[in-house]
Structures are given as structure tokens and as C-alpha cells.
Amino acid sequence: MTYTIGEMAKLLDVAPSTLRYYDKEGLLPFMERTESGIRIFKDSDYEILKIIHCLKATGMQIKDIKEFINLVLQGDESIDERLELFKKRKAELEKQMADLQETMDTVNFKCWYYETAKKAGTTAVPDNMSDDELPEDMRRIRARLRN
User: Fold this and answer.
1) Domain that holds residue 68
2) pLDDT tens, 34-86?
3) What are the helix and strand counts (H, E) for the chain?
4) Phi first, then psi: what are they for 61, rounded to 5°?
5) Does 47 share its domain with 8?
6) Which of 11, 14, 89, 103 keeps 20 to 30 A from 41, CA to CA?
7) Judgement on whether residues 81 and 17 belong to the same structural domain of the protein
8) Torsion-angle region of residue 71: left (phi > 0), alpha (psi -120 to 50) or beta?
9) Which pTM does this prediction carry?
10) Do 120 and 51 fall within a single domain?
């Protein structure tokens, strides 16, 4: 089955301009066009477009997505390179997730801190609490924040 750019965009839940952008950036070398230049998408294009959309959502750069598409077009001889590309992205995402967790821990601590201060009517109460008086998860975060 074939799809127009609007139909494919609707299937992917993206704007048609997103697909035009992908095409302009060279991410769709497999895409066919009619004699008048209208883009035609096939069922097989849907899967690769889902992968492109996923990679974009991970924050992968367009140049790296383009490299991935070119490697896919090379066939099985590029499996090692594709694996390395995904391992690199995975490591980058794990680092981002660790950084975000650290930020979330800080926000959670500050929420606890100000909830405690609000109940007491002063910040002196959480400021002067010993480690033993803190909830266990807040103890760990406060120790990290002090370092």
C-alpha cells in the first residue's frame, strides 16, 4: 500500500513538515516520488520512519541518524557499525538519566525541606536536624549535597 505525506504523517503522529525535513536532511533516500515529484510512502517506509522518529526523540543528532540510515542501506555488512552507534547512544542516554536522577533527588530533597520548614514555621528545624532525624532517602541526598 502507498501513502501520501499527509497520510504517513498521521500514522506517525507527526506534522507533514517533519517528514519533509527528514527528506531534506537526506534521511529518506529510499523514498519514491511520482513523476510530478510527489512523495510516495510504502508500508516498509513506515518502520524506518518509526525508528528515525524514535532516534530523534532520544536526542540523536541528524548526522548520526543519517549515518544509521546509510548503514542500514549497506545491509548486513554494517551490523557492527550499527551496534556501535546504538551502544554509543545508550551510554549517552544512561549519562543523561543519571544526571536527571541527581536533579530529581535535589528537587525531592528541597520539597521535603520546605514541607518540613512549613510545618515547623521555620527553616531552622530542617537545618538543625541530625542525620538520624531525617528520612533515610533524605539522609542520602543531604550527604551528597554537602559534598
Assistant:
1) 2-88
2) 899 899 999 888 988 999 989 998 899 999 999 999 999 999 999 999 999 99
3) 7, 3
4) -70, 150
5) yes
6) 89
7) yes
8) alpha
9) 0.72
10) no
